[in-house]
Amino acid sequence: MRKIKDFFYDKNDIIIVLIILAAAAFIIYTRINVIMDYPEQLAREAAATEASREEETTTESTVISLTIDDSDTIATVSEELEAEGLVTSADDFETYVDDLGEEDEEPVLKTGTFQIPEGASQEEITDIIIE
What we know:
By secondary structure, the protein is mainly alpha-helical.
């Protein structure tokens, strides 16, 4: 009995290492399919993420060009915005812009060609086209 006790006392570090190695080998053996499929799973997830990013980019990239000349008024620009579907009512947008002006000053339109995202709010549109 003493010999067995001395053996375990002298060799317990080696025995613990062997137990840990056996446990690790058992876990790897039972989960080898999952371990080997992991890189393929990562590739599928990356491809799905990339596809969703491309879809978002094409969805969000719809913009409408609007050209404003020196002779254009807020009324004509409002009608163009309504015709392009950027605002629901030209009269409502014109009233909104008129309300932005101070007491004696009307808002001044910028001239040039502007890119207005589809679905932009009235505030976003006025930030783009009003000085």
